[in-house]
Protein 1
Amino acid sequence: MPRVGVFLCHCGTNIAGVVDIPTVAEAVKQFPGVVYVDDNKFSCSEPGQAAIRQSIIDNGLDRVVISACSPRMHEITFRKAVSAAGLNPYLMEIANIREHCSWVHSDNKEAATEKAIELVKMAVAKVSLHQELFRKRISMEKKALVIGGGIAGIQAALDIANAGHQVILVEREPTIGGRMAQLDKTFPTLDCSACILSPKMVDVSQHPNIRLLTYSEVEKVQGFVGNFEVEIRQRARYVNHTTCTGCGICWQKCPEKVPGEFEEGTGQRTSVYIPFPQAVPSKPVIDTVSCRYFKYLDFIDKKMEGKKPPPCRICEKLCPPQAIDWEQKDEIIRETVGAIVVATGFKTFDHSVYGEYGGGRIPDVITSLQLERLMNASGPTLGEVVRPSDGTHPKTVVFLSCVGSRDEAKGRPYCSKICCMYMAKQALMLKEHDPGVQSYIFYIDIRAGGKDFEEFTRRAQEEFGVLYLRGRVSKIYQDDKKLMVCGEDSLIGRPVEIAADMVVLATGVEPSEGAAKVAQTLNISYDTYGFMVEAHPKLRPVETNTDGILVAGACVGPRDIPDSVAHGGAAAAKVIGLLSQDTLTTEPLTAAIDASRCTGCLLCSQICPFQAIDMVPANGKSIAVVNEGLCKGCGLCVAACRSTAPSLKGYTDAQILSEVLALCP
Amino acid sequence: MINTVTILPAAKNDLRSFVEKTSGQKLLRCYQCGKCTAGCPTAYLWDLTPRQVMRAVQLGLKEELMRTHSYWLCVFCQTCSARCPQEIDIAAVMDSLRHLAILEKRAPAEKEVALFHRHFLRLVHRFGKVWEVGLGGLYNLTSGHPLANTSLLPAMFARGKLPLLPHTTHNMEEIRNIFKRAEELERKSAGPETGRKA
């Protein structure tokens, strides 16, 4: 028979003002197994805890019921107190007679007292069946993986590396830098984007603690916090980066030209290329889709009819260190890391669904990212803003905000946050490039919430004469060389028409291509648009529901550069905190599966929100096994299993049933 | 039928440049919050509200703005100017618009308001000060409402608010000079871009 001690807390008058404690104490003494009852004004206070410790020792108690406030408040406090008396902390149960009783029944003291007695009765019945539980220690691999080499990922990688931990930075493109590298200037300070980004990119490539893997993608992630097993595919570049010196002869001489991704189609690149001059690493890759030699090989392989393409191979002939390697294959790199930062960034909305804006068929209707490239001194036009159709300088430029933002009909009801500011910046910069330019901005609201943002949009209007027109454009059509833009100025309440030379669509922010796939690989949640979901939007903005996996930057939602940098740093701080521990302790209140009852149906494994259940072969069948590193003790598997194989430690069926029986014998 | 407005580049917005020059206000500072309209005691009579007048100037909608009654109905109480968060003297903008209408010899949408102003200035020119009885009499006779507001007369006489004879200023020469100078400036400001009809 267990020896149960019950400690009744008054919580000042919070409990004792409603519940008659002496009556409860008298009743509790009669419950089976109760050998000691005590009450205290504040059990959580130091004297209160000391009294609990002393009573456990003096009376040889082996089970404890604390009848006080919610376990959310003080479960950990009382576990420590019990533990200090030499008892296993899980041999304690809390009866919540404050939130569940005195606070909600202050109008009926008698009934409250009766309810308190029953709550304690249930707790006594349950605690009698408690077993000793022990925390486990798991090892910690002191290495981090950062997915995505944009500004958020770069910041996270540098911060973790500077704290002395190893970092693997994986980037899908041939260079790091991300979207920020494509920008000309940044709002509201008009800093040159490349000038502030390039030093950080170089820092990444030279940092002794960072292993940079570009042209690579994470393919598989298994395991749990402290011990993630990661598989990364390093795609074949067909250029040996160990011998390549980055001299540039290959990409200068390559005869094949294709529209450049980095230039957003405004300029061309060769088949062997680096995306932009400051690329890191500054060594090229060969694009097998456009390369003439690969086309030739394909022709031979498939025994195609017609004229044979030339087996070019000029890069190979000209390469001084002979770094071109046609035999190179994709490589799988396996690593174990303790924590992962996801910073996969964003792409811009595809405006071809807006037929009323030309659906991408009017050459002088361009996107804001294309305008960035045209304004950039290292862009395809060397900073000359010209019309794609005829190369003339536009004098009247109209900006359309919210293209793919705040548009329920296009499935993008959210605000992309950055467009208001970059439009103001671009309109202002156009005037700096050519004082003869008049810009118009059609907007719904000007959202300039940020340090110096409002002042910036005011400056664009007052100093640079950018004319803001409140309304959404309904139609753009070509009229000879002009683009007729039809909208309404809802402030004067009249339709307006502008004969423009160029139209810039402020296309909205959406998650990068394949972001959802990354989330699936990592088993983290993403929303309907594909943005990663944080553990708590306010209080845990860089954590996910999976321990050890953090998120940063625009993969979580539209974010500007300062926000992305801040979140990259915040994610790094969380990683550094994790990696500073040698081992991690796990909570023992997890599910356990009775192997003899498991039929191997896999239902629990499918239903587990934390992917904590693995299937392992045993005696010729598969059975489910709980990974205690991942299990959060939610109990879904217990409820789902048809053969009652799983049980939740601390909340077994027998324990729950004993509470019910105590209440309704 | 609402006509579509063709928006001109800022550089070709003559209306705005005239108003900015004559009122000394920066019209692009207006962000259309509507606080002017909300506080205006006469806006309920206006066809375009004070905010819409400001917007029309920003957009350069000269012809239709000139046709409106709005700026004639401003009583220059300056509530709008005092409250404007962007520190624009909106009342001064309304004055500029009247100025422009007179310069261009447009028929004022509120003829009587224009008439009242003319009589007022004529009396100031003559006596250096306003003469209430003279102004009331002149206005009532020329506006075609000879009995307008006459019910107020006994009470005002009784309180000594309406002296029968005009007061004069001791230095009429100075007053004449002010008027002369104002006329000079007016001629100068009426450049060809304001479209003044000779």
Note: The mean pLDDT of chain A is 95.
Protein 2
Amino acid sequence: MPFITLLATLLALSAILYQLGKGRALRLSGGRPGVLHSLPTYYGSYVALWCALPAFLLVAVWIIIEPMALQALVLNSLPETVRQLPLARLSLITNEMRQLAASGDYRFASSPEARAAAEHYRDLHQIGFAAMAVLVLTAGIFGGRFALGRIRPALRARNRVEQAILFFLFVSSTLAIFTTIGIVLSLLFESLRFFSMVPVSDFLFGLSWSPQMAMRTDQVGSSGAFGAVPLFAGTLLISLIAMVVAVPTGLLSAIYMAEYANPRFRAVAKPLIEVLAGIPTVVYGFFAVVTVAPFLRDLGNQLHFSVSSESALATGIVMGVMIIPFISSLSDDVICDVPDALRHGAYGLGATRSETIRQVVLPAALPGIVGGILLAVSRAIGETMIVVMAAGLSAHLTANPFASVTTVTVQVVTLLVGDQEFDSPKTLSAFALGLVLFVVTLALNVVALKVVRKYRERYE
Amino acid sequence: MDPGAERTQSNGHTKVAARDVNVYYGEKHALKTVDLDIRINEVTALIGPSGCGKSTFLRCINRMNDLIDGAKVTGSIVLDRQDIYDRNLDVVQLRARVGMVFQKPNPFPKSIFDNVAYGPRIHGLANTAGEIEEIVVTSLKRAGLFEEVKDRLEEPGTGLSGGQQQRLCIARAIAVSPEVILMDEPCSALDPIATAKVEELIDELRENFTIVIVTHSMQQAARVSQRTAFFHLGELIEVGDTESIFTNPSHKLTQGYITGRFG
């Protein structure tokens, strides 16, 4: 019996028990609904939950324990010589065993012993699964019967069911939190390994970035330098250029859309601006590489100054274009949220439209706009695809927008693409960079949300 | 007898004359051929059940209806011999002459000082910081708010209580030195004590301004106004001295409304 059939059977069983529970509650009420504490459906759900919850819990436990238990059993049955092998070899053997067992095709077994072990593994797996299936279904049936037996008119079925639902809601919401914590921890531990090899101060304040490490001791010139300042500077330069492009354009377009545009124009233009947000960043990336960068380079040539074909300017401009809809639609919402009473107050004093917008509407909307801009900055800093395609790879410490710079995200990608050894500072530095990136964007988001919330409190 | 009656400087001189005013909101005929004179230095109260057009008429006087999509106004409203619906009239200048106080207090998210200084600044009424300050202090004093806020002029106006906010809005309106002040149910969001203060203030302001007030409270109309106009379903039913309207209404509808039989 495959796994999916087991699950389907369990679900069907719960459905049947639901009907039984509901029917029993109805019978007990004797046609007078007022006698029951809860609606009949709650008694049904109560029984179904008693059937499904313990059973699924057993399945979950089995899924977690089974591979470990099987492996231990099979390894124990192997000859002593094999068990003495180092851990890496041992895991190779168990992997082969598991794959052979899963495919059911033993022709490619490396040795008769391996074949025997795989067959043994397969048998154990099948027996284990059958036992589990029986156990689970029994648990479901007993759980359901137990609950059926407990149905009385006075049973507070609704409260129980709602408690169970509350529990599910709680688990779902904590899942996201635990995922975040897990991500942070994984970053943190790898970063700590990195910082045990390279001092934190060298990393945060060092001015030279050259992560190539010597593979052999006689290699020269590749000692590795992990000063991340050029990366931070490059990231900031490109983000700054992006914001210079995006903030005025986005804000002015939002003001026009919210205060001046007639509804027909707005209905057409707003979705069009938001299309920009739907363009995949890869597409922006090659727009930067193929169109904007060569254009700027040629323009620079004509004006007799040199513009790198991977200039920070080209990358920043394209990234700015990507962020425009972000700023414009957030600002637009905020401006529209400013109560009309304020506008009318200003008009009533004889303010013109532009005076009203500049002196009343924008100041009122400012906290929200600032929050939106901060969110946009954190997006710019974390943006990866555009910079990977269009920005440079070598780390120069420069503020010249026509030069090529590299960013934190670009370095993380280049450090981790391909085969890597996870004990060299070169690879581990990617996690340290990731940690810095995470901390910075997290801080920006927290500040932005705080600012936005403060604004919301004022008008609701 | 209203003690303010002696102070009345009104000589029956007309400040605002509305003739044959019709307002349409899209298909809806909201105000039907209204003729009404507003006299100088008097408080004119507009009363009537909800949706009767009294607020609509009020908003015609400083052309706030221009801000509503699909609103159309016909007829003429003359302010001191100038037709305010004249094509050459600058609506910004009109609103400097005809100020407005709204139903809900709507102070700007600025300091108390800047709220009052806003109008004088945009109209260039003062050249120096000292002049601005003088206008602000005078306006706050006339609005009866100065004593309460003199130590915290730099705090945000939104931090005041509802009644203080509404008096701040009145100070803001009179800082521009308008000739007419329109008030759209200025006390509907206030508690009785704050209402009493604002009503007292209205009575004092009458000395220097012409005031038109929309109100749902007949007691308020009786307390603060010299003339009362009763609107019903977009029509002006009756207008006259407040005392005679409330003691001896000539129209059956007016009588029904003020005695509480409908509305």
Note: The interface with chain B takes residues 339, 341-352, 355, 359-360, 363-364, 458 of chain A (CB under 8 Å).
Protein 3
Amino acid sequence: MITYAIVIAAFVIMQILRGTGHISSLFEGLLVPICVYVILAVSLNLVVGISGELSLGHAGFMCVGAFASAFFTKCAQNAIPVSGVRFALAILIGAVVAAVLGVLIGIPVLRLKGDYLAIVTLAFGEIIKNVINVFYIGRDVNGIHISMKDKFSLGMEADGEMLLNGPQGITGIPKDSSFVVGFILILITLFIALNLINSRDGRAIKAIRDNRIAASSIGINITKYKLMAFTISSALAGMAGALYSHNLATLQASKFNFNTSILVLVFVVLGGIGNIRGSVIAAVVLTALPELLRGLADYRMLIYAIVLIVMMLFNWAPKALEWRERYLGRFFKKSAKEGE
Amino acid sequence: MSFLSYLINGISLGSVYAIIALGYTMVYGIAKMLNFAHGDVIMVGGYAALTMMLSLNAHPLVGVLVAIVVCTVLGITIEAVAYRPLRGAASPLAVLITAIGVSYFLQNVVLLIFGSNPKSFQSVVPLPDLKLADGALTITAETIVTITSCIIIMIVLTTFINKTKTGQAMQAVSEDKGAAQLMGINVNKTIALTFAIGSGLAAVAGVLLCSAYPSLSPYTGSMPGIKAFVAAVFGGIGSIPGAMLGGILLGVIEILAKAYISSQLADAIVFAVLIVVLLVKPTGLLGKPIQEKV
Amino acid sequence: MKKFNKVIGAAVAAAMVASAVAVPAAAEEGTFKIGGIGPVTGAAAAYGSAVMNGAQIAVDEINEAGGVNGAQLEFNPQDDEHDAEKSVNAYNTLKDWGMQMLLGSVTSAPCIAVEAEAVNDNMFLLTPSGTAVECISGDNAFRVCFSDPAQGTESAKFIGENGLATKVAVIYDSSDVYSSGIYDAFQTEAANQPFEIVASESFTADSKTDFSVQLQKAKDSGAELVYLPFYYNEASLVFQQAAGMDFAPLWFGVDGMDGILSVEGFDTSLAEGVMLLTPFSASAEDEKTQSFVTKYQDLYGEVPNQFAADAYDGIYILKAALEQAGATADMDASAICDALKAAMQEITYDGITGTQITWGADGEPIKAPIAVKIVNGAYEFM
């Protein structure tokens, strides 16, 4: 409940600020990316925190969602002129395609364990990126042309339009994303995630995480539940991808590399593994941090790295936790009471 | 003939992956952590050697030695500042994220010191290339030196871990930290030593990487780092001969995929092969099977 | 720990709300505010840094000489890490700062994203080096450099018309917008030229250290000339590896190749005989170029490449257009944009990346490409 309250309060504050014109352009522009990363962080937390599997290829699902939805929008731009309806369909398509891929990848991947599972998700993420990079799809009077070599071999008429141009990706995507849409998607994500965690299925998934053998001995179908968490997480990431791709005029597969997957993992771990509210807060803070540090000019990314290390040590190191308990303990108890 | 030449190129590339993977697997095997900053330590090693050779006109061998010293000190420092405090944290992922922070940190420090323009590295290998079959096949001197170094390092490391007392201590720490401590092993010292060795190896790898592919920028280490990580997993992470085998195979597959299937999809093919291998042998080619305890 | 995070979260949220509240940018008397966007960190940092350095030199020169229409210039460079999303963030930061016109973005994909925002705001945009066609799709956007199709087409024409070769191989970066854009145009134009593309090999950003396969295939195809539409960093590796396998065709590069001679430690004899189309030559003997190159070397310790030169010219082009339009520093961004749109099509500019440059309504520069050949470690005009 508190999580919903925080999100809704943040939304209301932002809307008031926007309505009265008291918000900077930077922050106005950051709102949609923040929504994207919040959804990504929550969805990855379902795999990493609830299901207990390390995934290093989350950007791949976002990539698929982004491309599927943007491709649909480009195709349907004339057929469906109402942007609201078109965007809703695009988001749905992004989520469904990513979910299907989640199932396909999940079946083999979830047989593995630990670091080996992590590396295979990384591999799938890279494969998705590389494969999308070689697709050339164009449309002219003769219909749709597809090639996996280059633009030239499409053999298009001169007036043809490139829909997906290999590494140059998709350009000219209408800007359908807005903070309101992002906010609604966050609420949907939270609803799905929190309901899953507190449901019978969610408890089964956590039981598998805590002790695989014990869980299977009481009759929990391990593959089914793991796949369930993985697929829901992929679908949500696909949704985030759709939101992302309709926020910028250009989309390239190279964006969805290993570093993006890692970035989302950083949100999850910093916010607390399995802690959905933490993911939301960490995603907001770490997306905004590099922008707030712009005043430091050349030292910006250096300071960002240091802040990241310090925050990790402060939040996770056993010594730091002990120290906090001792010196700040009273303050926390007090603030916790106020908070609840 | 062209197949042979591709094969040789694959082995050259693979030997570079292998030497990086040795450091990765060493640290993973003992400390049980994925050190994502390893690639960046390699880059620092490259810059250290380059600075010695270019600015101070030192002999290449001096450059290599300085690089080893710099990286060893760096490795110990990173371990003490960023990794050790997190030992015993609630989740092993915490230290993974800190490693990423360290990786960003190293890249940006080097960016500020040396600038973003790539620098061309002079090979530290003074030998001529080996020409076979009337010059149709070329094996570069760098490849020969890299493979030789790989084999030497592999043998020395294996002997060290299996035969010396310190090596035995490392194995004990890797098996069970708590029990090792009870047996009177200083866990912190042992892990620090592991990082020192791993980072020293990174310096050697950095110098050889830059000799084979002489372009050095603050981001030089990250991609080979990831590829070497893949190679280490391929061979069975934690296994020293596995890292060597994984590295060479990865290089050969990458080059052959480029040559005979598609240069655009070569990376995708490498990863696909990795997935297939892991599905058939879930702990890599030479990895020990995981035993599930009830 | 959860409690602690809540406190931290609340504190940070409060700080962010505070920082999110707009501070109306105080319009300083008598300065034109020019924003700059480009990668200063990340893998493309070399290009962005060169642009920022080049632009800063021009701004300082103009300010010393009394400014533009009696007003000083102020230049604010922002980093975008070569990422479209970050580039838009940088653009919004600059808007908060009170930017009146934009020099950027440096790289193609981010530039497309920023341009879409700039069209909506009616913000004037001049990209020094964003080469993709879509970078200047709006009527508010112009560029200094050639577009990708223009470069590819001109290269093919140059090779064909000068009869440099009958068999041509191409190696390009298939994961890069710039490189693949030039390749597309080159391939299209090659059909009209008296040479044949015998091999077209690609590499990707993830494996751009080993070119042995691509070179081997080019060699086996019997190519007399190899076309290399990518940046100097990768090119330096290509030349080194080609020398190792005794492969010595004619090499032909594009503007991204400029800079190869100033890679620290690079054996320039490997690049001997390389031809490239570049708008800028650091060894040109005209006074403007020499003064720029000397200043750049004094300040940054490197020989400037075409990125720096494009940015240097970019600032002077803005000056020329501002003067033509008679713009004053108290005008808002939209008014300046309207004035500059018209003025850009009226001016004729002579700079270090071309002479007698004019612009059409589409924003493309009209200038003659310059082909140079590397002889004895320096450019020689062809």
Note: DSSP finds eleven helices and 15 strands in chain C.
Protein 4
Amino acid sequence: MALIETHDLRFVYGKGTPFEKVALQGANLAINEGEFIGVIGHTGSGKSTLVQLLNGLLKPESGQILLNGKNIWEKPKKIRDIRFQVGLVFQYPEYQLFEETVYRDIAFGPMNKGIKGKDELDRIVRTAAEFAGLKESLLEKSPFDLSGGEKRRAAIAGVIAMEPKVLILDEPTAGLDPRGRDKILSRIKEYRKKTGSTVLLVSHSMEDIARVADRVLVMNHGNVEMFDTTENIFKQGQHLAEIGLKVPQVTQVFLELKKLGADVGTDVYTMDYAKNAALQYLRGSRTEGGEAQ
Amino acid sequence: MISDITIGQFMPGKSFIHKMDPRMKIIVMSAMIVFVFLAKNLMSMGLMTGFVFLSMLLTRVSPRMYFKGLKAIWFLVLFTAVLNMLYLRGDHVLFQWRFLTVTEEGLWQSGFIAMRLVLIIIISAMLTYTTSPTDLTAAIERLLSPLKLFRVPVHELAMMMTIALRFIPTLLEETEKIMNAQKARGADLESGGMLKRAKALIPILIPLFISAFRRAFELATAMDCRCYTGGKGRTRLNVLRYKFRDVFAFLLVAGLCAGIIYLNTLAPALVR
């Protein structure tokens, strides 16, 4: 059984006003436990709506979301419990920081969850801070004194601290410098490896998705356009281009090489793959060349 | 939800009323609000109501939006009406129970007052639904410009109003975002007593204030960068000009005024 399933999930913004807009028109998908899913789609494709539906911040117009086989809206009063199980890190999460110290801000989620024991809270906060790559010395500082990247990671720690089964991150690297991005991505990878939790990463950066995701969910005009392994998705450069998306830059390089007549695969989507594929091709052509001589 | 607030919201459109000069709209609609109080018998009130409803349809904004605006204050309307009904003592007693007396005159009075409130709300909603905030403040600036003679900083006031209006939707959106982010961290905003609820607002208000200040600084810098130094010597991209339709609207409302006064003389007043 899949961990998260959605059935004909539909959502409309501003129903009954002139601004009415269908954001999701019947999404069906299944996500297994422990998977790392990349979510891509151009602006307005319904990605953000989808992730907010998954943790019960928005209520679907029609259709169902099953978490562990149970409809999350079965008991609307208990929807908060769902939010602890499906942790959502919003875009630009640093704007949600409010406490006097980073430590207390990270503790906000677990305290809402009802964790009272001081030792347990301490353990949770410190583990979350470590996962997010925050130094001990930062914990007693005011969150407003941190750098942009640190603020972002403090906010992510605040969600990790709820120890959710599923962690959803909406564009966690937006607006950060390359080093800040790398740090966040590698921390998320590490977190997932150590805890085995399910992670959904929404991103505009194909490179980010290619680096970390097992499977990629492609959204287009409120529909699930494709949902397949990263390899299979990035093979379809043409299809992605049609819906206004791109393949990672390395994949583009290999597509061009192919056009120039080189016998290389077009399912190359990370630097490591690219290196191997290029070496393989060069070796191959050299031996061929050798034979010709 | 916060986004359900419709009063003061602008609904873009291309109707006659949308296209009117905002200055004339303010003049005409303020006049209409005054006329609501002129109508004193069923005939004149009928004319006024008919006129307001026709103009409402003319805006091409769904009546449902007006209804939503009314929903917000129905309690006030009801409260005022009931109070008036019990307060006014006329000669024709219809109903009496202990100290409560309902007279025919009181009933008319309360009916008229409820109707007046409803009409005023529809008229003001009509103005904000059909006029963009920028147009509205431009019009106010122009209409108030004679006050410059008395050293009232009209331009600055209008600019402040424009900015305030401009940021209402932004801040509402921001509030909703922050609320969602804190809800995602399990913040409980819906239950508990007064104190608990007030405390639950802290995680929302602090980030909201911080972002409001940040936006204010950014806006000030952006205005400085574009050499904003106040109203002196500034010209407008879209100069407001009265057109035929504005004259037409003016005459129509003047006619309405005459009609109400005339109809008032045909039958005795039902309301003071």
Note: DSSP finds ten helices and two strands in chain B.
